[in-house]
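To: structure desk
From: M.T.
Subject: fold request, one chain
Message: Could you run this one when you get a chance? Sequence is below, nothing fancy, just the single chain.
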Amino acid sequence: MKIEELKKLRKLYATKEMMQKAGIDVPKRVSTGGYYKKLVESYKNGVYMRGQNLGGIFKIAFFLADRMRVGIKEPVYELFINYESGEFITYDVSLKSWRNAKLDMLEWPEYVYHSGKFVNAECNRSIKNLLKVTSGGFKGILDYQLNVRADQLKKKHKRETNPWDLDMDEVPELPKDWNKWVEKVGITSNYIFYEYQRNGAKTGYCSWCEKDVPIAKVKHNMIGKCKCCGHEVTFKSIGKTGNFYSPEEYMYLVQKCDDGFVIREFRGHRRYMKGSYKKPVENYASERRRTIYNEYYSSKNYYFGDYKNTEMRWIKGYERSNYYYSSYYGDYAGKVYGKTLPSLSKDILRKSGLYEMVKNMDKLDPETYINSLRGKPYLEQLAKAGLTRLAYQVMKGTFCLDNFHTSVGELSKALLIDKQRMKRLRENNGGNIYIKWLRDEKNRNKIVSDEVLKFFEAEKIEPDSISFIRDRMSEVKIANYLKKQYRLNGRKIIELISTWQDYLSMANRLKMDVKQELIYKPKDLIQSHNIVVSLCGDVEIAKRAAEIAEEFPNVDAICREVKEKYEFVDKKYAVIVPQKIEDIIYEGKILGHCLDRHDIYFDRIERKESFIMFLRKTEEIDKPYYTLEVEPKGTIRQKRTVGDKQNPDFKEAKKFLEKWQREIQKNMNMKDAELATESANLRVKEFEELRLKKVKIRGGHLAGKLLVEILEADLMEADVESREGEYIVA
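Reply: Done. Structure tokens follow.
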């Protein structure tokens, strides 16, 4: 409709009859009803309508009662309807603007909603006949507008959905035996239902065999196998079982589709009702997703769902939230219908390896495989070589072969192994751990039996996992020992390895001869582990000490070496030198500072840059008081007590420390002086770097302050004359 043409149409004013009706219609106060009641103004007729068919345009004018009562004949709105094309537009007389809104979206006085609407008989007939609606008046016009909007929305949706429907038309019908396949293969959850008997049930009904089968020594919800069909089943006591659904499972169907193929995803389950377990109410499999691929494996994804709250249909896009993450890490593997694959593998899927993957794997998500194939084309080579386990791990992102190059020629070279090991890998369908062991074999020029490698792979044991013991035991002996300990203690193999490593670390700390077989291979690992834990004291401290000792092997010896030179006791205070790493860790834990959490202090001890010492009160010589970091010759870098603080009581202790610094000079020699000079230079350099970088303390009571300022304030240099003759030359 052209607005300029609409403006030329005859103006419609309120008739004499309408004006008279409005004039005698006195407004009343009525209650709105409902929960929130209020009094509102109401007329017998709040809106008056007049319409005429003007050259194919049905024009309807709307008048308000309160305006008509003061003599205004002009309408507030003029609605123009082209009933042939289904177009309508409204002219707002007061605002002099054109609007596309429906009647219910226009602005009306509140009384309109609580009053009647007047329309003469002729206009009412025109509304029904021209607009083809069952109701007349205001409601009939609004019904017409709603129908128009619905048609417009449907046409708009069709512009989007028509291309989707063309894609869906290419999807073939389901195979004739699809439902049977779903029942017997696609849904893998099977059950044996049995009646409880006091001496044990002897027979039960197998849902896969569909007949009574022998059973023995079963319990409700126990997992086992049917003695007839060999399928895994869950035993269900009829007396304890009510209505239930089997777990939802994924199923896939791959079919030829136009110039490409389609992967159809189904989800299904069985439903059992109490008293009728021999025949499930349904074997249900609904199709949820379709992915259509062209010959280049580019894809279009569809899911079945609610389309814009209008209908259930196939919708282009992803239903899975964060699809690209979930497709790699989500568990969407399911049974794949196999009868369509042989022909596809000779045609559109001949360069995919999908047929080989499905043939050699119990369950697979073919969509994730094809999507992975686009970025990792060597998956085809792995699948066709029989390495489906390795291909699956690459597909799921749990093993990386980014350096794989088909240009290498031989697959064995691409996998960094030789031909003989390639044969073993293929024969055992080895995965990432298996291939790591084969590479380890090749590097060490040593053969490990396939039986042992399969055990290591099943238990997720990599070469590095047992490096702590491989210098004393062969892989065969390690495997046998772990199996024996599993039978003895029932612990998981991976837990036993961790326990074994902890045991040897703590045994080494206790100066036990860990090279002797009786020590490194105890008869009962768990028992021996508990014994060394008790000997070491706190297990956490023992483990941490073992870690530190491995990295800084000289710390214990250095502590004992400086003990005689630096220890000093008077009536009130004492400086004590720790004897081993555990003493330092314990001190840090008791006083709550960072000694046990940072390796820097142990590194300094190892290099003799500084030492850790304890300030104690003489009457409580075993109770932690202050921890000191001391440079060679007695300069104190840090002095901290509980919570990394320095309390007022330290002022008195400071006098003792000055006395201690003077006393220990008598024990110093030339080597100590050299170490002291080097330590001071390193300290000055460190302070300069901290000042330059403006490093601040992050937590605690000193948070936000510059670290260098705190360290400088903490520094307590030994006030002793540096005369060479005062030192005893060692």
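Reply (cont.): Residues 344-438 form one domain. Let me know if you need anything else for the meeting.
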